[in-house]
Amino acid sequence: MTSTAPKNTYPWDEYEAAHQNTFSPPNIPIKRAIPPGVTEEAFDQAIEALAAVVGKDQVFVGGALSHYIDPFDIWDDDESKRKVPGAAVVPASVEEVRAILHVANQFNIPLWTFSRGKNLGYGGPAPRINGSVALDLRRMNRILEVNDEFSYCVVEPGVSWKQLIDYCAEHKKKVWPSTPSLSWGSVTGNSISGLEVLLADGDVVRTGQFSIDGSPNAFISKFTYGPSIEGLFLQSNLGVVTKLSLWMTPTPPAFMECTLCADEFQHIEPMVDLLGPMRQNGLIPSCVWFMGCWEILSARGKRVDFWEGPGPVPAWRMRELCKELDLPYWTARWGFWGPKRVIQAQFDEIKEVVEKTQPALKLNGTIFSGCNGGLVDNKSIPEMNALLLTGQSSLFSLPTIQWALPKDGSGKGAHGDYAPLIPNSGKLTLEWIKKSYECYEKRGIEPMIDFFMHERHILMVNMFMYDQQNTRDRKAIYDLYHDFHKLSKDRCYGMYRAHVNYMGKY
């Protein structure tokens, strides 16, 4: 076993530095935790057995567990509430995972499984039950296949978006992976289909056509063979995903980045009601990302760069900043992919509707085409046009967590989210945001809201940026989370996912 924190978790200097900085040791050392119902002697025997499976250098204890807690935990200084594992184990193969499951069953040890542990707004790699053994799958990071003909890949769970994107570029694959704002996370976090899953008893389950040995349809047809059970393994602890398939976008001959902007707070209602039907009827083929001005501002600097007064940036100052920096209050962003004439026709259809029904809104489209009738080279697209839409890796949003830090450089930037699902309705969206603003103002936190429009629902993201080392900030975030949950409960809205600190609390 080793108490030295993991090194070389990423092969790229920028990503490794970001990881090490994020998971820097907490202010209060981590005390040993034993899972409920397990004796210390039995736990020690289990750790020895795990070391026999993967080697002592891949079993982490003591101070090394700083990489297996929530780096933004509001209970960072409260041992009675902080979520901590008892150990972490890092397998490299299905066989090692099976042996780990055998040890866990033998000693009655709960496991907390994750691929990269980078969903930091919801607890990251921290376990639900203290003393659990963190099952870290980052070493299971083989890209098994990238198929140009049918535009899919097959990967192990430790593959990051950055790794997949680089692989496609290096091997000149004619596909674009979909990408999040931070490419250090695992592709498994966003996609669960065509699975190989290891159950707790060591049995292997393959889903859909993948369950037929040698099937040519294993990764190109979903939900077509036997009962669909993929959902059992999405955001659950019912099995360990060891392989999965991911559908990707064929590299198009042309790409257009589109934005729809509004200068007034209340314009969010007509924006949603304008774009919602277009998502539902397929005119807009993909998720639409709505960003508020506060979030965009946080990507440009810290609070103290724009406001030196006490507390959060006031609404009147934000209006001034929007004018000074030419920031829209709301920006909706999406893409079109395909033949240039088809893309232009889609854009023109939207433009006609905007001009007729919502002339106060500003629609823009920037198109990029391949050379000499060829496919688009996504690396030729400027970063701010390409982000999230063209299969390129990025850490662009990481600096936003520094928003609440003081001018002297002290403190530790952190963030969290509360993310309810609401119907795709302008009226309900505006109502939720108005109520949320009241909660933000009450707790002295800037209203950083963005959301993602799907065909029939919206995934709302109420973000909060704070200084983890500031007691007032941590208390405000705790209260704010409960404020948002009450709003959701009163409206029967469910969450997209829950932070580990609040699982089982409501």
UniProtKB/TrEMBL annotation:
It comes from the Eukaryota. One of its GO terms (biological process) is lactate catabolic process. InterPro entries: Cytok_DH_C_sf (IPR016170), FAD-bd_PCMH (IPR016166), FAD-bd_PCMH-like_sf (IPR036318), FAD-bd_PCMH_sub1 (IPR016167), FAD-bd_PCMH_sub2 (IPR016169), Oxid_FAD_bind_N (IPR006094). Residues 81-251 form the FAD-binding PCMH-type domain. GO terms for cellular component: mitochondrion. GO terms for molecular function: D-lactate dehydrogenase (cytochrome) activity; D-lactate dehydrogenase (NAD+) activity; FAD binding. PROSITE patterns: FAD_PCMH. PANTHER family: ARYL-ALCOHOL OXIDASE VANILLYL-ALCOHOL OXIDASE (AFU_ORTHOLOGUE AFUA_3G09500)-RELATED, D-LACTATE DEHYDROGENASE. This is FAD-binding PCMH-type domain-containing protein. It comes from Gibberella intermedia (Bulb rot disease fungus). The lineage of its organism: Eukaryota, Fungi, Dikarya, Ascomycota, Pezizomycotina.
